[in-house]
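Can't paste images in this forum, so I'm doing it all in text. The chain is below; anyone willing to post the predicted structure tokens underneath?
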Amino acid sequence: QPSIPEQIRGPYSLVFGIGSAPAATWMASGLLLVAAQLSLVIGWVRGHCLTDFDGRYRAWTRVGVSWLVLAGVVGTGAHQSMAQMLVAQFGFETVWQREILLWLLPLGALVASVAWVMDGEMKTSRTARLLMWTSASTAVGGLVLVLEPTLIDAALLDRFPRLVNFLELVVMVSAPGLLVISMGVFLRHVVHVSPEPAPRRKWRRKKKK
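Text version of the structure:
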């Protein structure tokens, strides 16, 4: 008869093990939910700014809804299910890494659009902006690792067989964690420093000869 620790070890490894990601997935989804709530609070504070004549505070509502959608997708694994359904329906035999690209491209477009909006709105806080792009860079690094795990030295993988799985879990948690810290820093900025909107982006026009 197995001892109590041996009985616990199996279920524990399924939830918290390096080769399995339920706990990291739930944590990432929870952090994205926190990011969505912080977005709505930032928008509410910005909505009381008397100099926001264009109503740019509404951008934070779109940001919050986007993070909420992403949290639901990550938490339920809907992106993988949709990708498998599309592969079964249309094949895409000639597409490289089709199971990954079919969910990566739409979600990547969503995240890129949100990051672009946040970058413009966070210009008044360099720290929050830096943390936001650090989070984005971490996520991009994780996606590269998922697409091409062979980029890691083979000798290192032989020594640590689960290194790729471990790094994927670290990225899954650290990227939304940095995002939450970034938005917390920016919320502190709009509450204690200034809720005024950032200057608009200036587009350079080509000079006529």
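DSSP finds eight helices and no strands in the chain. Residues 135 and 175 are 5 Å apart (CA to CA).
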